[in-house]
UniProtKB/TrEMBL annotation:
Localisation: Cell membrane
Biological process annotations from GO: peptide transport
Name of the protein: ABC transporter ATPase
Cell membrane listed as a keyword: yes
Domain of life of the native organism: Bacteria
Sequence ranges assigned to domain ABC transporter in this UniProt record: 12-260
SUPFAM superfamilies in alphabetical order: P-loop containing nucleoside triphosphate hydrolases (SSF52540)
Main location: membrane
PROSITE patterns: ABC_TRANSPORTER_1, ABC_TRANSPORTER_2
Length: 345
């Protein structure tokens, strides 16, 4: 998913993340690969339990090493994060890579001022004085659009609105100018106006710093606004990937089609009914054989020989575009034709 003239800043190769539990092995991520270049945003979309957040916590090294089996490779600017020591990861976290969490109120300490929390992150990585850290915190609050930052820097999280707390979280994540920013559903709890402001802020900051962004969400409307490339996850696997225009405008996997059919379109007729995907996401303790989506797929009976339930479809990627599905290209054109007709005309 990179352009031909740019080397990936982040490269994930055949990543597998399995957890040991009392009930058995949870295959949270099961063979995931993708690349991301600087200045680009990769949107990772999928239902709860698809492996989105686990993938990104693994990139950051925020997992219980005693209970987690990890295979594959995660290269950040050529450095393999899976073989890095905890000390190396601590040096990289907040400095070269950073994360914005979904719930700012739960992620910020209620006992310390906003300025202290932003400043401590900066001090840890630069060794600067408290005065310099406070100055940097004020600068970052101003940069993320918080009014009167020289006064608000001494406020506590409960004195900020939800949108302001999320801006403060973004300021903390960006205080050391990280080259990779992971945003884990950072706008979910916000109203649409504040959500739009946060999205614009991230795009502006990306343009300013050239940051590579991974944006995790279940909302395809958000993906349409911010992403350059899209990776669709289901049951711990990637089922489709491509540019935003390719994936949202011409889906090639029944799951992606199902996600799009379950949300309203701004282009099509308002009379088109929304069609939810039947059933529930698979158990990652005992996932379905073959294609993990086949028990919920409307087209599984179109494939001969019970392939969908017996054989895992390969994700064949050509120039950044691919889908893991047993349907032929001709079948997809025929079966997905109704989607194109109702959504785009």
């Amino acid at each position: 998913m990179t352009s031909t003239d740019q080397q990936p800043f982040l490269s994930v190769k055949d990543l597998k993340v399995h957890f040991s539990t009392e009930d058995g092995i949870v295959k949270a991520v099961d063979g995931l690969s993708f690349d991301l270049v600087k200045g680009q945003t990769l949107g990772i979309v999928g239902e709860s339990g698809s492996g989105k957040s686990v993938t990104n916590l693994t990139i950051l090294g925020l997992h219980d090493r005693d209970r987690t089996a990890i295979e594959g490779e995660i290269l950040l600017d050529g450095k393999d994060l899976l073989t890095a020591s905890e000390r190396e990861l601590e040096r990289l976290r907040g400095n070269k890579m950073s994360m914005i969490f979904q719930d700012a109120l739960a992620s910020l300490s209620p006992y310390h001022t906003i300025g202290t929390q932003i400043g401590e992150t900066y001090r840890k990585h630069t060794g600067c004085s408290k005065a310099e850290a406070r100055k940097r915190a004020v600068e970052m609050l101003r940069r993320v659009g918080i009014p009167q930052p020289d006064m608000r820097v001494d406020d506590y999280p409960h004195q900020f609105s939800g949108g302001m707390r999320q801006r403060a979280m973004i300021a903390m994540a960006l205080v050391c100018d990280p080259e990779l920013l992971i945003a884990d559903e950072p706008t979910t709890a916000l109203d649409v106006t504040v959500q739009a402001q946060i999205m614009d802020l991230l795009k502006d900051l990306q343009q300013e710093f050239g940051t590579a962004i991974i944006f995790i969400t279940h909302d395809l409307g958000v993906i349409a606004d911010i992403a350059d490339d899209v990776l669709v996850m289901y049951g711990g696997r990637c089922v489709e990937r491509g540019t935003k225009k390719q994936v949202l405008g011409d889906p090639q996997h029944p799951y992606t089609l199902g996600l799009l059919n379950s949300m309203p379109s701004l282009k099509g007729s308002v009379d088109v009914p929304l069609t939810p995907i039947p059933g529930s996401p698979p158990s990652l303790l005992n996932p379905p054989s073959g294609c993990r989506f086949h028990p919920r797929c409307a087209f599984a009976d179109k494939v001969a020989g019970n392939l969908c339930s017996s054989e895992r479809p390969l994700l064949e990627v050509v120039e950044g575009r691919g889908s893991a599905c047993h349907l032929t290209e001709t079948q997809k054109q025929e079966l997905f034709a109704d989607f194109a007709a109702t959504r785009h005309h």
